[in-house]
Structures are given as C-alpha cells and as structure tokens.
Design brief:
It contains eight helices and five strands, in the order E-H-E-H-H-E-H-H-E-H-H-E-H. Strands 2-1-3-4-5 form a five-stranded parallel sheet, sandwiched between helices. It is globular.
C-alpha cells in the first residue's frame, strides 16, 4: 500500500509516518510543499497511491535561490488553503482516491472554503474526510482504516 502525505513540518511528518507504518504495511511518500505537490501529482508514483493525507496549511516552497514563482491562486489565497488547492489538483487527476484533510484548523474555519471555493467544490467521487490534528493520531489511523475498507 502507498500513502501520499503532504506535510511541511518535518516532526509532524515523522510522527504521522511512524503512526501509519506501525499500523499498516505501507510506504508513505512525503511531499513537503505545495510546489512539490504540483510537480509530483503529474508523476505516476503519486497517482498510484491508495490514499492521500493532506495538511491544509503548508508553505508554497522551501526557501532557496531558485524558488519556483508563486502562481496567481497561491498569491491570492496564501498558505492557509494550500492543502485545499492540492486537493483540487488531486481530484482532477485521481478523482477516486480517498483523501484525508488533516489540519489544526477547526471545521468552522474551513466551512466556507469547503463549500464555495474551487478547491472545496473539487470533491471528486472518492471519499474524503476532514480530521483535526492534535496529539492523538488514533482518529487519523481510524480514518485511514475506514477509507481503505470503504474502497475495497
């Protein structure tokens, strides 16, 4: 099994990866930024994932001399909605893939985006779940189990 993980915080990514691999026989493919996600989603390995876990608030790119230029949508919306933009891109190329949006934001903070934004409208046909990040990753593991069993 392959799980695609969009998470820009290295410690969070490590903890999430350990939680997943402790429970599942899975390869976790981490993508750290929105710009990396936009490149990866065009590649076969990303499309062969069984499930995606997307942090909602990720940075555009890591600082470097050759940083990719921010597209208009990134400039307009900023990092607080990067995961939703990534979800919209994922739904374009893999509409059936189950997705967990994993965020520190409350559902109320995202309700307008989930209803009215292009990213929110791009739900595809695959199941998706919004889970709140906290110190307990049990809901994440249960969400993964639920989505994978629903896809069998």
């Amino acid at each position: 099994m392959r799980i695609l993980l969009l998470e820009d915080d290295p410690k969070q990514a490590e903890g999430i990866t350990l939680s997943i691999t402790d429970r599942f026989d899975a390869e976790v493919v981490r993508i750290a930024t929105e710009s990396e996600f936009r490149l990866a989603i065009r590649k076969e390995f990303a499309l062969s994932a069984d499930l995606a876990v997307l942090d909602v608030m990720v940075r555009w790119t890591d600082p470097s001399l050759n940083m990719p230029r921010r597209p208009e949508d990134v400039c307009a919306e900023g990092p607080p909605r990067a995961g939703l933009r990534c979800l919209a891109l994922l739904r374009e190329v893999a509409p059936e893939m189950p997705v967990i949006a994993y965020t520190i934001l409350e559902e109320d903070d995202l309700s307008e985006d989930l209803i009215s934004s292009p990213a929110g409208k791009a739900r595809g046909t695959g199941p998706s779940v919004l889970l709140r990040k906290d110190g307990d990753r049990t809901p994440l593991i249960e969400g993964i189990e639920h989505l994978l069993s629903a896809n069998d």
